Structures are given as structure tokens and as C-alpha cells.
Amino acid sequence: MTQLALVIDLNVCVGCHACVTSCKEWNTSGEAGFLSDDNPYDRDPTGTFFNRVQTFEVGEFPDTQTVHFPKSCLHCEDPPCVPVCPTGASYKRAEDGIVLVDYDKCIGCKYCAWACPYGVREIDEHQKVMKKCTLCVDRIYDQNLPEAQRKPACVLACPTSARLYGDIHDSESVVSQAIRDSGGYALMPEWGTHPANHYLPRRKNEIRIHKDELERAANPLKIDGLLPKPGVKEPALDDVTSW
Amino acid sequence: MLLLTPHPSRFTAKLMNPAFSVIFLTTLIGVGQGLFLALYAAELGAAFGWIAVPHAQRFFAAGSALSLAFLAAGLLASFFHLGHPERAWRSAAMWRTSWLSREVIALPLFMAAVAAYGGAHYLGFGATLLLGSAGVLLCLALFICTAMIYACLKFLQEWATPLTVINYVLLGSASGFSFAAAFAASAASADHGLVRVLVYAAGMLTVSALCTRVASLRRNSRLKAKSSLQTAIGIKHPRIVQKAQGFMGGSFNTREFFHGKAPRVLLAVKWGFLALVFPVPLVLLLAGESLSSAVLLEAAFAIQFLGLIAERWYFFAQANHPQNLYYQAIS
Ligand code: SF4
Ligand code: SF4
Fold it and tell me: Residue A72: nearest ligand to its CA?
């Protein structure tokens, strides 16, 4: 079974909000309708977003770390938001594990938002239906896009590649490898929701040195085999000077 | 960055923002359910010959109509909670998994049972005890569905306890019996034997509800939150401070889950409901019974109902949602 997910590398995220804006741009322009805003250029701007980047300070001055923390629906493998929905508008797709809301069925009772411990569901104050990250379900399968672009908008936008995307049930996928190799973890494991999205912790930076960085392939000194070499039978310098 | 706008999370209150539609839904149907239970208990008592019911036919028919009115008012209030009330019919779909869906089914079924019960009395059909027993089962089912909507959310630790169910049953029944006592006093006379029985029953229910509600208050004051900022973002350091929640002007997450009331407001509401739901109506009930005063009984119900609105507000406001860990500071 497939479980698509994001893996977010907190070691790399610089908190630039590029994923927030590209998410909003993509998802407010789609067939499912816009994500409404109020007072966007005024006092108290507010609006519907699928993705937010928050910032935390860890430690005590001067020994602090600033951690930027992007947060969107984690597409839990055991999502508490789904069984509580009275209409079936909230559902989890069997084929790829994405948790979605059917905007045509949702009655806007907000019960699912109460049932999500992560605070990632937001009601659209004008359309009065519940909204949340769709993992760009309307782009990751789009055959009209070049293969490399069939990824969530946030993943493509991230300038530092802090966002990885793939199938966490496939042990060879980039996301599974990242979770395995870099200590990927889930949020609030105490509630048994088994979030599909994982986070990679802050860790010591490693320098990755590739072979061609140690030894330049085109180094002229390494092709000295091609330098002119006198044959064995040619007279040596001694021979010449002893004339 | 500067704190630009006043914001709920600047106050210490980091708890659910109670919705009045839901407060009215749960308190009003509680009265309707309790009233029906009182009617049925009176009919049972009369059938066993323990009490006499004056103008039985009128009493039961009018009582059922009043119970229906409370239930319908609650149902109406619930529609104000929905973003799309015109799609409300869809909410019966997921009864296999959702307590909300089950409530949506149980409420109209119970209303139909009350209507049938009252109708059977009005038209003088027999079998009212049988019809009523079906109503009692549906009534209990409805109590359980309503309470389980809250009790089943395990990470809302203040709600996730059997006490939630017990409180909904006892508080709803107590208010319904208080109403029934006042109704019986105005339908017959305040010194009727039936009124005395209903007053004592209402009093007993009120005292039991006091015990269980105080038990849940004590439990909640000792709760230790399972989630922390550490589990929320997965960093184990003991000192983590939020510096930005990702937006400046508030969002659904800050409006729905923060009530922004000062702690002293909460305290006032708590002591207010503890007084209005329990001791004041108890005194008024007993005084109304001994002085044969229908007005005092009516006051007892009115004050208890007012108190229950405060009680329900507090029930919601006291719940601390773990999502609030992510919304502590604007910037
Ligand atoms: S993160 Fe919240 S909304 Fe997303 S699947 Fe999990 S419980 Fe549901
Ligand atoms: S708000 Fe919509 S999606 Fe959420 S529980 Fe209610 S009907 Fe379901």
C-alpha cells in the first residue's frame, strides 16, 4: 500500500515561507475554488492556509537555536479527524493514503477540526467548508505536467530542498531513506495517530565530499602518460654529454 | 517583531471557544429528555398505583408537547452551528463511526417517539407504556450520543472520561424533572402528591449531578497534559519558546480554540454555575413544595436552566486543545 507524505528537514529549513506562498498560490487557483482571505492588505489580515511556517527558539540565551517549523496536515495513517466526520466528507484515500475533504459534502460542523490534535484544519470563513492540505492531489497525478513537476507545490518551491516528498511505505523511496538515515520522527506520537509526514531533527552538519571533488577528473597532471617520452633506445642525456 | 494587534493568545486563556449554538442544543434537549423521563416515570408510578396523576390525558399530552418543543428548539439551535445547514441531512451517513452522526439519527427518532407517546395519550390509544419504554431507550441513547461526541475525543483530556456521559445524563434529567415539577404544579395544583414526588426526584437528581460534576471538576483540576511543546515539535529541550505562529492577524485556529477570557471570568462562571444549578434550585424546589407555590417551582427551573447554560459554557471553555501548543505567540 502506498502512503504519500512529506518529510521536512528542520536542519535545512530557513523559514523563508516560500512553501506557504506557493501552496496558497497553487491551491487558491485550482478547480476546487479559492482559499478566502479577509483584510489581506489591512489591519488584522486573516485567511485560509494549508501550510504555515512557525518559529521556535530552543535553549537559553546565548545557547539558542532558532527552529523554523513548517506545519500542514500530516496525513495521519490513523487519522482521528476521519471517523468523527458525520457526513463522510473527510476521508482517507485507500490508494495513496491522502486525507481529503469533499467540499460538496462538508456541512461545516467543525467537528473534524476539534478531532485533529495538530491544528491544521481551517474552516473557510466564506465557503463555510473545512479545508486542509491535499498534498496537491490535483498536481501530483497530472499527466500534462513534466514528470519532475508532479510534486506538491511546496516541495518544488523550497529553495533549500528542506521538503522531501514520496511514499513512506516504499523502503527505497527518498523519504523512507531520509527517515531511516537521519532520525525522522512523527509529531505527538502519544495520540497514536501515526502521522505520515515526518520531520528530520536538527543534527550535526556533515560535509559530503564526492570523489570528483577530491580528484579533479580533468586534472592535466593526471594525464602525464601522454607527455612525450623518449624511447629506450634513444640516447640518454649522459650519452650525449659524454661525447 | 512587535505585537501589532490584540490577540486572544495574549491572554492566558488557551482553551476552547464555546459556541452558543452547541450550548443551547445540549441544554435544551437535556430539558426535553429529562421532562420525557419524568412523564414516563409518573405514568409508571400511576400504573403501579403509587401516585395519582390529575387529568392524566391532558397532563401527558401537554407534557409531551412541551418536551417536543424543547427538543425542537435544541435542534433549531444546532443548525446555527453549521456552515451549510441545507446539507444537514448528509450528517446521518457515517453512523458507523461518528457519534455526531448517531446523535443526528437519535434526536429525530426520539422526537418521533415523544410525539407518538403524546399523541397516543391525546387520542386515548392504549399501549402508551409500551410506546414510552421505546422512548426511554431512545432518550438514553440520545444522552449517550450527545455526551460521547465530546467524551470520545481522547486528547481533549477534560472531556475524555465516563463522567462526561454521567454528567450529561444527570444534568439533563435534573433540569427536566425540575421543569416537570413546575409543569405539574401549574397543570394541577402545587400541593398535589405528584408535585411532591417530582420535586423530590428533581432534588435527588440535582444532588447526584452535583456530586458527579464536582468529581469531574476535581479530576480536571488535577489533569496532567499528555502533550507538550516538546512532543508537539519533537524537540526534547526543556526550554522552547514560540517566536512566531506564522501569521499576524489570527486564523481559524486562534478563533475556534481560544476564548480569550480572563481567568477571573472563568472562575466567576464556575462558581456561578455551581450556585445556580445546584443549591439555589434545590432551595426553591423545596420551598415551592412546602409553600405550595408554583411560581417558586418555575423559578427553580428557570434558574437551573440559566445555570446550565453557564455550566455548558464552562465545560467547553475548560477544555484545553493540544493544537493550542502551536499557537502561543504572534511574533
Ligand atoms: S494531521 Fe490532523 S487533519 Fe491531517 S490527517 Fe492527521 S488528524 Fe487529520
Ligand atoms: S466540518 Fe465538514 S469535514 Fe469536518 S466533520 Fe464536519 S462535515 Fe466532516
Answer: 1
Of all protein residues, the one whose alpha carbon is nearest to atom 6 of ligand 2 is A109
CA A192/CA B3 separation, integer angstroms: 36
Peptide bond into A40 cis (omega under 30): no
Prediction ipTM score: 0.90
CATH number belonging to domain B17-326: 1.20.1630
- Strands B240-244 and A51-60, how do they pair? antiparallel
Check if the beta carbon of residue A111 is closer than 8 Å to that of residue B149: yes
Are B233 and A67 in contact by the 8 Å Cβ rule? The answer is yes
The closest alpha carbon to B326, from B2, B94, B9, B90, belongs to B9
What H or E segment, with its residue span, contains residue A59? Answer: strand A51-60
CB atoms within 10 A of CB B59: 22
- Report phi then psi at B211, rounded to 5: -60, -50
Count of Cβ atoms closer than 10 Å to residue B218 Cβ: 10
**In contact, B161 and B20? CB cutoff 8 Å:** no
Give the list of residues 6+ apart from residue A149 with CB closer than 8 angstroms, or none: A139, A156
**With b meaning 16 or more CB within 10 Å and e meaning fewer, what string describes A53-64?**
bbbbbbbeeeee
Interface of B with A in 203-242 (CB under 8 A): 226-227, 229, 231-235, 237, 239-242
Tell me the whole-structure pTM to 2 decimals. Answer: 0.89
B203-260 pLDDT tens trace: 999 999 999 999 999 999 999 999 999 999 999 999 999 999 999 888 999 999 999 8
Which grid cell is B14?
A: 488557551
* B-chain residue closest to A116, CA distance: B323
**B130 interfacial to chain A (CB closer than 8 Å):** no
Pairing of strands A4-9, A198-200: parallel
pLDDT tens digits for range B125-181 = 888 999 999 999 999 999 999 999 999 999 999 999 999 999 999 999 999 999 999
Region of residue A240 (left: phi > 0; alpha: psi -120 to 50; beta: else): alpha
Is residue A41 within 8 A of residue A172, CB to CB? The reply is no
Closest listed ligand to the CA of A85: 2
Instruction: Judge whether A239 and A232 are in contact, CB under 8 Å.
Output: no
CA–CA dist B67, B168 (Å, integer): 17
Q: What is the largest CA-CA distance in chain A?
A: 108
Residues in chain A with pLDDT < 70?
222-228, 240-243
C-alpha cell at A172: 527505497
Q: Nearest residue on chain A to B82, judged by CA atoms? A: A109
Q: Which DSSP state fits A4?
A: E
Set of cell numbers at residue B229: 511543546
B residues 302-321 lying closer than 8 A (beta carbon) to A = 321
Measuring CA to CA, which residue among B82, B16, B25, B256 is closest to residue A108? B82
